[in-house]
């Protein structure tokens, strides 16, 4: 069997830039230690029973007590189904894989529907791989770099010496060109405590030695001081990194390997490749080198799937390597796509029997106002109390989603009149500019003769 490639995670911290999204205010499920839902916490308001149920599922996932199960979050539009799923993702943290997709994403000409679902399933299954690596860790005493000068400078490589120490010993290492470049890139100076991976040559700066804490000129606001390491300079360290099965699939099925993850051109992956990877992962698991982490696959608007996809999900949930399937829908009793049969939520009954069903309820006036206040804070909009009351009234008479969208529009109008606070007049003006669904429908009924192919009778 050929060697299986595994992507290595970089130890450097990445800065993630996120746009302000519909659920960017959600920080978790807002539960206390007893899994009781607080009325308003971590960006979620109301839906106490649904959030508690989601919290129970999240805790079971964390403990690894369930896998290959399904959960359905069902409710009317605008009742926080996707927000609860996002809260579950935040609660589970980065260690648990969480893959998210809309059901309509699978209808693509590039790959079959079952292939798209298979890739989504494997994105939600993590593999925690344990490796032992040799590192050199100590405090830098001195760095000497010989840089050739003159006409022959380019022909001769740079060389140097690195002196490192621990509390018990001190050693001098010879440096080649690549190590000199790595040390220069990491901006290592005498007095720094560093770690060098012998296999990859990666240099990691752990901090500044406490012995240099009096060198005020070398200190910055973000300077981190650490103790000089003890014992031997060279030591063995266990490195743990978590990757998804899909990432391993892509690396081993494409000529460009790791770069295919960034290109997004994964294409269809042959079953033979997946079978080979599953066998190797099973071997690693038996040898204690790897651990399987069942994650969560969230499919929004699941009623958009057809009967073929539902049949695939039925079979996939029985697989040994199956994540927790969380689906959401706002449909009532409707046709199953691809058939003439009607079923609750547009999902076949045999699949519904496998799902734990969580229902969400419409928000009351107090909860709607609390959500609007959270969105105003998230969008950094200062709004008067009268304007909030009017916006809450609009949300109750039309929809919460429509009212939330008026926040940024009202803020823009306030800024145009050079005001830092949104008042009731700003909300009234944008309410008149942009129609909600009810007023738009009434406008079309009143002016049906002016529209092409109108079906007003069917709307009535």
From TrEMBL:
InterPro entries: AAA+_ATPase, P-loop_NTPase, RuvB-like, RuvB-like_C, RuvBL1/2_DNA/RNA_bd_dom, TIP49_P-loop. SMART domains: AAA. The keyword Oxidoreductase does not apply. Its main location: nucleus. It is found in: Nucleus. Gene3D superfamilies: 1.10.8.60, P-loop containing nucleotide triphosphate hydrolases, RuvB-like helicase, domain II. Keywords: ATP-binding, DNA damage, DNA repair, Helicase, Hydrolase, Nucleotide-binding, Nucleus, Transcription, Transcription regulation. Transmembrane segments: none annotated. Residues 67-353 form the AAA+ ATPase domain. The keyword Nucleotide-binding applies. Belongs to the RuvB family. The lineage of its organism: Eukaryota, Viridiplantae, Chlorophyta, Mamiellophyceae, Mamiellales. GO terms for cellular component: nucleus. One of its GO terms (biological process) is DNA repair. This is RuvB-like helicase. PANTHER family: RUVB-RELATED REPTIN AND PONTIN (PTHR11093). Its EC number is 3.6.4.12. GO terms for molecular function: ATP binding; ATP hydrolysis activity; DNA helicase activity. It catalyses: ATP + H2O = ADP + phosphate + H(+).
């Amino acid at each position: 069997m050929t060697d299986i490639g595994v992507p290595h995670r970089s130890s450097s911290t990445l800065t993630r830039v996120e746009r302000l999204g519909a659920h960017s205010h959600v920080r978790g499920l807002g539960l206390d230690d007893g899994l009781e839902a607080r009325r308003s916490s971590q960006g979620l308001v109301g839906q106490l029973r649904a959030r508690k149920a989601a919290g129970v599922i999240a805790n079971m996932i964390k403990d690894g007590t369930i896998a290959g199960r399904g959960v359905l979050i069902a409710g009317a539009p605008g009742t926080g189904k996707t927000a609860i799923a996002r809260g579950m993702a935040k609660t589970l943290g980065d260690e648990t894989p969480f893959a998210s997709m809309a059901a309509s994403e699978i209808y693509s000409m590039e790959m079959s529907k079952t292939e798209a679902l298979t890739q989504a399933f494997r994105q939600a299954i993590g593999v925690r791989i344990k490796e032992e690596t040799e590192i050199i860790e100590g405090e830098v005493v001195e760095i000497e770099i010989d840089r050739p000068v003159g006409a022959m400078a380019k022909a001769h490589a740079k060389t140097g010496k690195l002196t490192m120490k621990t509390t018990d010993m001190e050693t001098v290492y010879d440096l080649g060109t690549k190590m000199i470049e790595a040390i220069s890139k990491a901006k290592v100076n005498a007095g720094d405590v560093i770690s060098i991976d012998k296999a990859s040559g990666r240099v990691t700066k752990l901090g500044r030695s406490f012995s240099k804490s009096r060198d005020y000129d070398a200190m910055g606001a973000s300077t981190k001081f650490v103790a000089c390491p003890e014992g031997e300079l060279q030591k063995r360290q266990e490195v743990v990194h978590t990757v998804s099965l899909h990432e391993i699939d892509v690396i081993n099925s494409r000529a460009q390997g790791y770069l295919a993850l960034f290109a997004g051109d994964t294409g269809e992956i042959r079953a033979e490749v997946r079978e080979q990877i599953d066998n190797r992962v099973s071997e690693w698991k038996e040898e204690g080198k790897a651990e399987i982490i069942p994650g969560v696959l969230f499919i929004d608007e699941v009623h958009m799937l057809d009967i073929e996809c539902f049949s695939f999900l039925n079979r996939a949930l029985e697989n040994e390597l199956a994540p927790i399937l969380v689906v959401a829908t706002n449909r009532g009793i409707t046709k199953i796509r691809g058939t003439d049969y009607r079923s609750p939520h547009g999902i076949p009954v045999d699949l519904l029997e496998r799902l734990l069903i969580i229902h969400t309820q419409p928000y009351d006036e107090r909860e709607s106002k609390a959500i609007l206040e959270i969105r105003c804070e998230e969008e950094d909009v200062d709004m008067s109390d009268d304007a909030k009351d009017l916006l809450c009234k609009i949300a109750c008479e039309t929809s919460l989603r429509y009212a939330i969208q008026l926040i940024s529009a009202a803020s823009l109008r306030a800024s145009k009149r050079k005001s830092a606070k949104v008042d009731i007049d700003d909300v009234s003006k944008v309410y008149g500019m942009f129609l909600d669904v009810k007023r738009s429908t009434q406008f079309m009924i009143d002016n049906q003769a002016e529209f092409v192919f109108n079906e007003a009778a069917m709307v009535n």
